[in-house]
Amino acid sequence: MAKILIHACCGPCLIYSYEKLVKEGHEVTCFYYNPNIHPFKEYKERLKSVQKCCEELSIPLVVGDYELEEYFRRVAFHEGERCSICYNLRLGKTAETAKKNGFDAFTTTLTISPYQALELIKKVGDKVAQEVGVSFLFKDFREGFKESHEKAKEMALYMQKYCGCLFSERERYDKKKRKKGLRIKG
Length: 186
Description:
- The chain is α/β, with parallel strands linked by helices.
- It has a single domain, classed as HUPs (Rossmann fold).
- The chain is 52% helix and 11% strand.
- The protein is built from 8 helices and 5 strands, in the order βαβαβααβαβααα.
- The protein has a 5-stranded parallel β-sheet with strand order 3-2-1-4-5, sandwiched between helices.
- Strand 1, helix 1 and strand 2 form a beta-alpha-beta unit.
- The radius of gyration is 16 Å and the shape is globular.
- 41% of the residues are buried.
């Protein structure tokens, strides 16, 4: 059994990921750190969803600071690499928090989404783990995406419509950007 810190992007993605890790025998704590989420109202809605999920499933929760300025400093003039930068920021903070608090490893719910760059997440997680000195537990949770969202609906959790950053929000709602296929991958 390992003591795992799981980075959560939202409540719906946390459900299956948490349950799978617990079934494998791990002791799991949730870490909510998402400075990429914009606007602030969206950030708060997702935080409330994670808090409700953690309360209902009895998951210990640690909430990181909302460092929006740091996110924008890092992605400014690097929009084409924004996903990689974002993964580095969030997984880096998760690894640091895991190391500081005596966790055996860290992981992320980002790997449940069919819309995320799975191989890039693995690459970044491995790199960050080596730099910080704590293990990255890579898990492909995508098989549970639908199940997790069905449970989230039953729990009446907030269901977001885009990844979280300003760029993904624009791509989601700007029909011209979607038609041109300008979706940027890290």
